[in-house]
Every structure is written in C-alpha cells, then in structure tokens.
Design a protein that fits this description.
The complex is a heterodimer. By secondary structure, chain A is mainly α. Chain A has a single domain, classed as Cytochrome c oxidase-like, subunit I domain (Cytochrome C Oxidase, Chain A, Up-down Bundle). Helix content of chain A is about 65%, strand content about 0%. Chain A contains 15 helices and no strands. Chain B is mostly helical. Chain B has one domain: Four Helix Bundle (Hemerythrin (Met), subunit A), CATH 1.20.120.80. Chain B is about 80% helix and about 0% strand. In chain B, helix 4 packs antiparallel against helix 6 and helix 6 runs antiparallel to helix 7. The longest helix of chain B has about 35 residues. Chain B starts with 7 loop residues before the first helix and ends with a helix. The chains are: A mainly alpha, B mainly alpha. At the A-B interface, helix 4, helix 6, helix 7 and helix 8 of A face helix 1 and helix 6 of B.
C-alpha cells in the first residue's frame, strides 16, 4: 500500500487489501484506525468550515435552518465518536503501546481486529443515518430527550452507530488494560512504564467503565422511539433530567478519554526534546489516574441550569475544581521539565508547546464554567463552544498532530520537511486563537450556542471567528501536504532520529513485522537518556 | 502477530473486565429504577401486584439451577471428564431455554391484560405504573437478550469441547462462558425481588 516505505522484513512488507483488512498486527490495525480517523476528521473539518461560513453574517447565508441543525449535529457526532475518541488511543495507542512494553502485540490480537471492524461498522451506520430515513439527525450530538424521542429525523440509526462505536471503544480499552498488566517485558516495572502507556492505562479504565452507560442510554433512546417506552416521558412518570444524568455520566468522563492520551503524548515528547528526564514522573503518572477517577464524579456540572438542588450544584462545582488540580500538576511538570533543559525546537516539540498553551486556555475557562455562579451567565453560550474547542482541538488535536510528527519517522522510516512542519504548527496555533477566542467574547456578551441566526451586535466577532477558521484550514492543508510528501519521498531515517529512550526507538524504522528479535530486558526508565544518541 | 500465545491469567482478567462493563450497562437501568421507585412508591407497589410471583420464583429456581450446572461443567472439564462436561453444558442451555419459555408466557399474559408500553390501560392509570412497566420491559428484556447470548456462548463452548479445542489443558473458554452465565444469573437475582417482591 505504501511502496515508498516497504523495506524488506518491515511490517509494511505483506501486500494486498486482505493483508490489511484481516491483519492482527497491532501496527497495521493502528494505521487502519489512523487513516479512518483522519478521513473523518477532514469530513468534520469541512462541516465545521461550512457552519462558520453560514455564521459569517446574520440571516441565511449559504444554507437553511434545518440544514444548519443537521450540520452541527453531524459535525459533533463525527468529530466526537468517529474522530476524537478513537484518535490517539486507537491509532498511536495500538501502534506504540506494545512497542513501549517490549511486547509482540496486544493481549488479544483478534479482539483488536474485531474492534476495528466494529469501528468500521459503526462508521458505516453513522453514514447510513445521513442518507436514509427522513433526513439526518438535528438534535445536536447530545441527543437530549424529549426532542430526540419525537423528532422525525433519523435519530435511531445515528444512536445505533454510537452504540456500536462505543462497543469498539470498550474492547480497545479492555485489550489495553490486559496488555499493560500481562505483557510488560522483564524488568519493565510499573515505574518504568512510559507516561504515554500510563495515560493509555487511565484512559482504558474510563473507556471500560463509562462507555457502557452511554450504551444503555442509547438503547433507551431507540426504545423510546421504536417501542414507545416512555422511560423519559413525564406524562408517564418518567423524567427527562435523568436522561441528562445518564448521558453525562458517560460523556463527561469521555472528554478525559479524549484528552488523557494526548497528555501522554506530550509527556513523552517534552523530555526527549529537552534532553532531560521528565520532572515528577510519579506525579504525572498518578495524575492520569486521578483525572480518570475524579473526572468520573463531575458530570452534573453540565446541568447547573437544569433544575438540580442547590446542594447538588455546590457538590458538583467543588468536584469540578478538584479535577483541575491533577491537570495543572501535569502542565507545571511539563514546564519544569523544559526548565534548564537542552531544548531542541523540533516540530513535535512545537506542537507540544502549542498543546500546552491552547489546553491551558481551554482548561482555565473550564473553571469559569465549573463555578456555579459564572456558569449561570455563560451556560449554553459560545463561551462553552470556545472552551470545548480549545481543549479538544487545541488539546487533543494538537496532541494527535504532535504524535504524528513524532512517530511518523518511526512508522514510515522517512522524515518530513521540518521547517514546513514548524510553520504549519505556528499557523494552526494562530488560527485556532483567531477561530475560538472571539467565541469567548461573544459568549460573555450573551451569544447563545447552536443558533442559526444572531443579532447584529455579534457580527464582528462572528466574522473574526470565520476568518480564523480559514487560517486553521490553511494550516491543516499545509501540515497534511507536508506529512504526505514526507512519508512518500522524504529522506530515510535511522532507528532513532530524535534520540529518544523508549523501546520503539531501538527497532529499525519502520519496525519489523515481529517487533523484537529477542524479548528485551529493561534495566532503565523511559526518560533515562544516558548513553542514548540521536542518529547522525 | 502471534496467535499461538496463550495466557490463562490474561484471558480471565479480560473476562472479568468485560463483566464490569455488563454490570455498568445494567447499572444505568438500576439507577433509573431506584429514582423512579423513590418517586412513585405507591404506584410501584400497586403495579408490582400485576406480576405473577410464582412464575418469577420458578424462573429464579431454574436460573440458579442452570448456574449450578455450569459450575459443575467447569469442574468436570478440569478433571478431564469431557463427556460429563458437555452434558452439563447442554443441561445449562436447556434450562436457559426453560427460563425463556416461562418468560414468554409471563410477557404474553401481561400483553393480554393491556400492560405494555403505550397501551390505553396504562395511559389511564397513574404515571408511576406506566414507568414501572417501562422499566420492567426494559430490564427483563435486556436480561432476556443476555440469556439468549449466553445460550450462544455456552453452545459455542460445547462445540469447542466436542471438536477437542476446549479441554482439560485449556479450559478457559468454558470457564469464561460460565462466568458470563453466573453474571446473567446474578442480575436476575436482583431483578426478581425488585420487580416481583416490592408489592
């Protein structure tokens, strides 16, 4: 499939479609995920650009209101369930985790293949929801009842897709937990695990324990629509607020499924380019688990204006502030790692620094939303949209791009143009601020989210945001073109172009089909750079 | 890349993790049940009288017995008594079938009395009664689905034993299948008092 990288004996060597679709090689499954995720990412980006274009001026611009409702629903569903949740764990988690553990593969290779097939089936079902029935769903990605139970659009099929995708995510998480417990190489103790592996471990537990709640919630929506169950119908003794609880019991932890693996990538990249052991290894590892645990107890901060008791609002507000602590611990540890390091400003580090800046912008505004008082003012405004996109696109997105720039030489055995990559990163960082910062301003001024039309006083900020979206699109185009050229025809690299100390860099680039010729025996930590040299 | 690698501990760990996800899947419904029961205490009390306690009790006995047979099947296979293990597995599947048949008669009796979601009878009654039956069908329905899946899993275990791929030396598939079956049984042990005995 990629002749440019096919070196004899590498995992690229086997040919033909079947050698990919029925592979149990974790590296190939990871790449299958990566290609699908990037394909759907481009679809989601195009939808987002169209939404922004519609909002460049008040009144109808390029589409009608119903189309607009379908667009933002699809943008959300595609980006959340098909892109962000599987993004780093299913792609780079699969490719890199067994290599970090010194293992041959994940614990259940065939189950891993099955997970990808479920993902493909879920994606196909999501696409079917667009083109069948009475029009694509118009509920927003949250599928809130009572509207989702009564709208005539194709909600049932879309929810079925979410259920299948959730199943895929659960199986990946299950596989990773067992892999990390059972397949660590001799000498690879828990405190010698890479922080990427720690982040995947914490993520896997959330995938495993939170996703079933989404599953049952989705099944109940389908039952409401198809069997007229009335579980959430107040006329029949049900309560729609309970839907919101069930939905957020999954969907808030899900944002940590989205961001924790990116934090793991950043924790692995920063020490390599600072040539210095990570500051506070154990606190970073522990903070991943702390985020996973505390993050499971904060869901109702999405519901401060839904009519909960004041006591519940106070408790969930307090717990939300508690989650900020481990997140801040990570940020301070990354910055401390850079302090007095020998910094090599290579593209992965530029993306990682972009992550830290953008994630911090999103994280701090999260506290504005987590505080019950200020949330009353900003709830359901563009402030929320800005916050969420700073965290997920600025955070997870930049984390994914950092991972792509960091591991592309390992996976493809070639290097991209580093100057262009750095420029792409800078354009993206500027563009994202242009795109999302005006949303904070608009939100504080009271612009509600999801509205098709707006009052004239918001025009300037909407224009600025739309122009920002074009800068982001340019940055993405430049970055993808550069990576594509790099993996096709960039200069070949040796085993360790960055001088990193984790196990994958001891293998040739690209790695062989069977990872390690002999089972490695580990006698050092993942950020112990003594004696590690970058290729010349 | 290696499919030959066998890890008994890993397979058991994976199964236990999967059982956690099943508990949480039902957990969402148990949460709904708890809230609605607290809100509509009287109506739940009254609605539960429509259920047939004898049939529910009979099904409890059937399911616990089937779980016992599954445990005996695993024990037999570990001792190398292949034929006995296969017979006990078939016995488990047969009792699962009995459970579903009893369930079928229970549900169809309810339907005849107009006790199903969206029926006029329930629309005329208090709202708590309607939500009671919505939860009843959601929870026993999902449980019934799990019984059916469990029959498939145990049937596959029987076929693996029959073809010599699940043996005394490598019995983890049957053991994991039995674990799944015990979970199905366990969930029913909670469903029975919640629905049948609250009245």
């Amino acid at each position: 499939m990629n002749d440019a990288s096919a070196a004899p004996g590498s995992f690229w060597a086997a040919r033909g479609l079947a050698s990919w679709l029925f592979t149990t090689d974790h590296k190939r499954i990871g790449l299958l995920y990566l290609w699908c995720v990037l394909g759907f990412f481009i679809v989601g980006v195009v939808l987002g650009l169209l939404i922004r274009l519609e909002l460049i001026a008040p009144g109808p611009t390029i589409m009608g209101a119903q189309t607009y409702n379908a667009m933002f629903t699809l943008h959300g569903v595609i980006m959340i369930f098909l892109v962000v949740i599987p993004s780093i764990p299913a792609s780079f988690g699969n490719i890199i985790l067994p290599l970090h553990l010194g293992a041959e593969d994940v614990a259940f290779p065939r189950l891993n293949m099955f997970s990808w097939w479920l993902y493909a089936l879920g994606a196909a079902t999501a696409l079917a929801a667009l083109f069948t029935g009475d029009g694509p769903p118009d509920t927003g990605w949250t599928f809130y009842v009572p509207f989702s139970a009564v709208t005539s659009t194709n909600v049932s099929v879309a929810v079925a897709a979410v259920f299948i995708l959730g199943f895929s995510s659960i199986l990946t998480g299950l596989n990773f937990i067992v892999t990390i417990h059972r397949l660590r190489a001799p000498g690879l103790t828990w405190t010698r695990l890479s922080l990427f592996a720690w982040a995947l471990y914490a993520t896997a537990w959330i995938q495993l324990l939170a996703t079933p709640i989404l599953g049952i919630t989705g099944l109940l929506i389908i039952a409401e629509r198809v069997l007229d169950m009335g579980v959430f119908d107040p006329a029949r003794g049900g309560d729609p607020i309970l839907y919101q609880h069930l939905f957020w019991i999954y969907s808030h932890p899900a944002v940590y499924i989205m961001v924790l693996p990116a934090m793991g990538v950043i924790s692995d990249i920063i020490p390599v380019f600072a040539r210095k052991a990570i500051f506070g290894y154990k606190t970073i590892a522990f903070s991943s688990l702390a985020i996973a645990f505390a993050g499971s107890l904060v869901w109702a901060h999405h519901m401060f204006v839904s009519g909960m008791s004041d006591t519940a609002v106070m408790v969930f507000s307090l717990l939300t502030f508690v989650v900020a602590i481990p997140s801040a611990v990570k940020v301070f540890n990354w910055v401390s790692t850079l302090y007095k390091g020998s910094i090599h400003m290579e593209p992965p580090l530029v993306f990682a620094l972009g992550f830290i800046f953008l994630f911090t912008m999103g994280g701090i505004t999260g506290l504005v939303l987590g505080a019950a008082g200020t949330d009353m003012h900003t709830h359901d405004t563009y402030f929320v949209v800005g916050h969420f996109h700073y965290v997920i696109f600025g955070g997870t997105g930049m984390g994914l791009f950092a991972a792509m720039h960091y591991w592309l030489p390992k996976v493809h055995g070639r290097m991209y143009n580093k100057r262009v990559a750095t420029w792409a990163a800078l354009i993206l960082i500027v563009g994202m601020n242009g795109l999302y910062f005006p949303m904070y301003v608009m939100g504080l001024a009271g612009m509600p989210r999801r509205y098709y039309d707006y009052l004239p006083q918001y025009t300037a900020m909407h224009e600025a945001s739309t122009v920002g979206s074009w800068v982001v699109a340019a940055g993405l185009a430049l970055m993808f073109a550069n990576l594509w050229r790099g993996l096709r025809s960039g200069p070949r690299v040796g085993p360790n172009p960055w001088g990193a100390a984790t196990l994958e860099w001891t293998l040739p680039s690209p790695p062989p089909a069977h990872n390690f010729p002999a089972e490695p025996v580990v006698d050092r930590g993942p950020y112990d750079f003594r004696g590690v040299r970058a290729d010349d | 890349m290696t499919d030959t690698h066998k890890d008994y501990e890993g397979a058991k760990l994976g199964m236990w993790l999967f059982l956690f996800t099943e508990i949480l899947l039902f957990g969402g419904l148990f949460v709904l049940f708890a809230v609605y029961m607290a809100r509509h205490h009287e109506a739940f009390h009254m609605a539960s009288r429509h259920l047939d306690v004898r049939m529910g009790a009979a099904n409890t006995v059937v399911l616990i017995t089937s779980s016992w047979l599954a445990a005996l099947a695993v024990a037999a296979l570990k001792r190398g008594q292949d034929a006995r293990a296969r017979g006990l597995t078939l016995g488990t599947i047969a009792l699962a079938g009995v459970f579903l048949v009893i369930k079928y008669f229970e549900w169809s009796a309810k339907f005849r009395h107009g006790l199903y979601p969206g029926s006029e009878h329930l629309a005329a009654g208090p709202p708590g009664e309607a939500v009671y039956f919505a939860m009843y069908y959601a929870m026993t329905g999902l449980h019934g689905l799990h019984v059916t899946v469990g029959m498939g899993v145990l049937g596959f275990a029987w076929w693996l034993m029959r073809t010599g791929r699940c043996t005394r030396a490598d019995f983890v598939f049957l053991e994991n299948g039995a674990l799944y079956w015990h979970l199905v049984d366990l969930i029913w042990i909670y469903l029975f008092p919640l629905f049948y005995l609250v009245g």
